[in-house]
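Researcher: Structure prediction, please.
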Amino acid sequence: MSLNTILNVATSGMMAAQTGLRVVSDNIANINTPGYVRKTMAQSNLVSNGMGVGVNIDAIKRATDKFMAAASLNGASSAGKANAIATAMDNAQKLFGDPSAKTNYFSTLNDVYAAFSLAVDDPSSTLLRSSATTKLQDFLGESKRITSSLSGQIKDTDNRLSADVDRVNVLLKQIDDLNADITRAKMTGADGTGSENIQSGLIDELSTYMNVQVSDRANGGVTVRSAEGVSLAGTGAATLTYVQSGPANGYLTVTTANSGGEVMPLYVANGELQGLLELRNKELPYLSDQLGEFVTRAAEEMNRASNASSAVPAPAVMNGKDTGLDAATAFKNFTGKTTIAITNAAGVIQKRVDIDFTAGTMTVDGLPGPAFTNANFTAQLNTALGGTATANFANGALSLNTAVATNGIAIVDDATTPSTKAGKGFSQFFGLNDVIRSDGYSPYETGMTAADPSGFTPGQTLTLRLTDADGTRIRDVQVTIPAGTGTMQETIDALNSRNNGVGLFGSFALGPKGELSFTSNSASPVSLSVVADTTQRGVSGPSLSQLFGVGLSERSTRAGLFKVDPAMAADPSKLPFAKLNLAAAAGTAALAVGDGRGALALAKAGDVTTSFSAAGDVAGASKSVLNYGADFSGSIARKAAAATSRKEAAESVQTEVNAQRQSQEGVNLDEELVNLTTFQQAFNASARLIQATKDMFDVLTNIV
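Model: Predicted structure follows.
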């Protein structure tokens, strides 16, 4: 071996040792740097003609563990989703208060019943009446506050989704750009681990937003794909978009770098984005929908009691609620009997009209009166009232007015065969004596049948969005109100069309109380929301989604629409605490001061078994309002506790995986000091070899 060869071997060894020292010193310097992955130097034997001629530095690499890195990314995604849901559910639970405390939201309804109960023994007490009104206002005010807060959380979730998507797009662009730096370093034999560490940190952050698959590129850098394999970075950065169309369910789309601008739906199974989507489209609206159902049924049962009762003296004016129906449809499908009585200031009946809806006849003061149909009911009722009062139906609402200001109107159903439509008596169906009013149409039980006219104008459209269980949009369908005879069945058929409706994914059906409900196919469950609704029933009437409560956006805001009847709130003496006594002798009072039977019925309204519709993720049930409230309160606490438990479990897994990853990829000071000593000794040995070679060269030179 020549002296030059020996010098080259020693020089390569010295250079390798020097590079090793630089790698070790860099590791030691970054021992406390978050996300830093220790570097290692890969070297190999240089061979020429079968003989070793030194050492070659192959590459400076990061000591990564792909399996631990993948587990860490999955752990971060799970923790991101769990944390988003747990935080929101905890905030939602706080809106209702501690279920074990006496000051929680549900206790305000108990206070209402207690206030009515106190008024039973002294129904003429202004103080007790005012107290009952105040407690009822408190309950409805709290319902409105919680509904508004939940709606605010939904809007905040929309904003967070948009912000997260913007951040993801920035991350994807940075990750993709770093690929060029890493590839350039690899091709030139330079140290590209700095860029790789930065890229790794960006991928770690990306995994908190969404679950991704990461693979190495042959020429350096990485390719990042979604759970379904859509390329997000590596061959150009993709662009994510959060699509939110008003009240409809939001969803994610992606436009890849090489798609030519084609937009595709993006499936995200984990991460903060998925957690926020679940909150936006399911958890928060479900909670608000169930609250709406609870308040609706509580109001319905109190209104059932108030419409079966009367104030003393009886009110001179009764203004009903907007049913959303035309007169012919509103008066159709009633059965049973009811009585409308006109009383004077002393509570003595001046005119009595008994209505038999089944037979279509009226009896006036015990004598045969006019017959009627649903089309002429108002006119025939005015005939029967004989000028003592006037009935009018306009804009979907029925009103009754006495001709004499000191007279009043009281309505009571027959004790044996009470009037009924959609499970409500005549007065309650029209809301003539409601103690609680609403600006909406809940509980969406119209009393219509499939053969009834729908009332919607042909050509008007309703756009529905269908999304799968994970929140990914399947499709939007635009349903057009069909021309024809205009029956509800024709409208339902249009909704259920397989071509232009929801027929491929589920079906709409009209229930026994005239409620329109959507049932998803069990094989592939979907959620339905309303993108746009231009339908209108009649002139200035409700849209189809408003009248029937189609879509969570319509149903989830209803709890904030209830209020105490303005007349009763202004004057608590108008609370219906008495009952009309039809058995009173002629000339004697049928309404008596001090009668507290109406107050007792209001106090017991929470104990009456009623039918609750399916709301949120809770199936329909028959139970009392108080029992439903207790179950609802418990379910909120359980959901919040379960979300917190899942968060803690996910964070625990993430911490453990990150610790194991750090043990594999992090810097060990003892190990680095050993490497430092080793490379130092190798450097010294190579230097001595060079010195020995120089000495030999000097000896040979002197000999010559």
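Model: The two ends are 20 Å apart (CA to CA).
Researcher: Thanks, that helps.
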